[in-house]
Amino acid sequence: MVLRFLLIEDNGDLARSVQERLTLEGHAVDHAPDLETARSCLASADYDLILLDIMLPDGDGRAFLAAQRQKGDATPVIVMTARSSVSDRVGTLDMGADDYITKPFDFAELEARCRAVLRRRGAPPNSQQRFADLVFDPLAGQVIVAGESRELRSRELRLFEVFLAAPGRILSKDHLCDRLFSYSEPVTDNAIEVYVGRLRKKLQGSTVRIETLRGLGYRLTGA
Known about the structure:
Elements: E1 4-8, H1 12-24, E2 28-32, H2 35-44, E3 49-53, E4 55-56, E5 59-60, H3 61-70, E6 77-81, H4 86-94, E7 99-102, H5 107-120, E8 129-131, E9 134-137, E10 142-145, E11 148-151, H6 154-164, H7 173-180, H8 191-202, E12 208-213, E13 217-222
Parallel strand pairs: 1-2, 1-3, 3-6, 6-7
Antiparallel strand pairs: 4-5, 8-9, 9-10, 10-11, 12-13
């Protein structure tokens, strides 16, 4: 499953390392070096998971977490910190964190904790899904059309997941850009058109269509 992360971390080297690792896995990652930037990101985009440092230039990550939970924001949060005492871990979890990882950490462990949190939060299972006359397998990263498996690359996979989550709904280019790319990635005006075109080729032979509605966006339909 391809996800969108918000990484709230003021250590530039660590942030770049985490961002690069998750991006290599096909995920979109927005980096906020402080809480003010994090709030701006949350006001303009939806995230699947937040990675949160505690000691930040403009405040305490725990207070930020508590405030988000009080507002009813249930976005999963994994706290990343050098503090390792039992009282720190318990206090942070009681404030609403979904998990806690101590710095320095292994990236494989971080990725495993992300998967575990999303499973507990009821993220869509990595099992085959049927839509119209095709089968979508997000775990294998492929669609099956008339018995033929067709591999989806990371952004194609993410794009199809977005469409499949809202069949029949008109999705604007801006919305699709928000779901496919992080703010730090350069995005050309025709980037979405390119990925939609690639995805359409993978769906050829199926009754599933991605319709273009001029001036509005795109819509997934299936007979």
